[in-house]
Amino acid sequence: MKKYLAGLIGLAVLTGIMNQAPKASAYGYRNCNAVVTSDTIRWKSIPPRFRASAVSFPAGVWRNALAESVSQWNTNPSKFYFNLTYDEPSVGRNNGENEIWFSNDDSVLAGAPAIAYTWWSCNPFSIKINEADVIFDNRVPYTPYTSKSSLWGYGGSYRPFQTTASHELGHAAGLLHENRFYNIMGQDWTHIHTNAGIAKTYSGEDASNGAVFLYGLYSTPLNDLSVSHWKRAGASGEYSTHSRTQMFTSGGALLASFNDAGEPRYHVNRGQTVQVEFTYENNGAATQNPNVGYYVSSNDNITTLDTFLGSVGFTLGRNTPYTARNYVTIPNTLAPGKYYVGAIVDRTNAVGEVYEDNNSTYIAIQVH
C-alpha cells in the first residue's frame, strides 16, 4: 500500500533528510539523522489512540475485522500497542487525531487501495510521530470474512481486509515497506496464515522484529511461533512478492501439480519420500527451539490427531522468516485420493504462546 510521509517541525517539511534503515537490517523505518540511529521516528506516548469512523466501522463484521487486525498487532513482543476506539463522528487528515476510515476520494487515496498518512517531528528535543491516519478505498473488493475460498490468494474474488489493515497499521506504528523477506509490509494479501479453511492475518516475524527495534521488548515475554504455506518469491518495487511453498522429490526436483479449487495439489505415490516446504516464523520475544511435526490428513485441518509422519527440531530466532524443506514419506497404507501434508510448529506445546491458531498449515497432495 502507498504511504504518505509528512514530517514537520513548525512549518518546515523535512522529507529530504529522512532515511530508511540500512540494508543490513530486515525491516524499514525512518530516521531524522542518517548517522545517529537513536533518531528513529516513533511514537513517544504509548499506546496511541486510534479512532475508527462511526460511518465506516459501525458495530458488526467490518468493526470486528478491524478489531482483529489491531488485536493481532497487539500481540507483538514489543512495548508498542494500539488503543482502538469506535464511533468517531468526524474524521480528517492532520487534525490532531489518529483516525481510520473508508473513502472514495482519489485526492486522498492517491491511487492506492489503502494509504497511511504519517506526520512527525524532527525537532532535536522532540523526535516523534505526531499523528497517523489510515484510509481504505471503499471501491476495492475487500471482505471482512476469513473463509479462504473467497480470497484472492485461494482463487476467490476478494481481497482480505484484515491483511491490508495489518499492513497499514504497520505504517502507523512506524514501519516502512519491505521487499527482502516474506513480510506483512510487502504484498499483504499473501502474508496470511491458513488452516481448516480459514485464512487470517498476523504481523509476522520481520514486522515484530521491527517493532522491537523501535520500541524495545515488553517487560513480560510475549512469545509466538507460526508456520505458513507462503514464501517470498521476489520483489516488486518496495514490496516483497509471495508465492505458495512447494513440494519436491527427494532429489529436489519440483513435483508435478494441478490447480484444485484455487490451490496447488501435488502428485505423489504411496511410499514415496518427498521434500515439503514451509515458512517458519518466530514472532515473539525469545529464541525458541520448537519441535515441528509433519502429518498427513484427509482434510485441510491439520492437527496432532492426524497421521504422524515424523518431526524435526529447529532453532528459530526473531530475525528473518525461515523457509525450509524437510523430508517426509507418504505412507504405503493410504488409499489413492486427495490428502494434505501438514506441519505443526511446537507440536508438543512446549512454548507458551500468546496466539496458538497459527501453528498449523498444509500442502495438498494427490496420492496414486
UniProtKB/TrEMBL annotation:
Keyword Signal found: yes
Keywords per UniProt: Signal
InterPro entries tied to this protein: Ig-like_fold, MetalloPept_cat_dom_sf
Residues forming coiled coils: none
Domain of life (superkingdom): Bacteria
Signal peptide: 1-26
Keyword Signal found: yes
Molecular function GO labels: metallopeptidase activity
Designated name of the protein: CARDB domain-containing protein
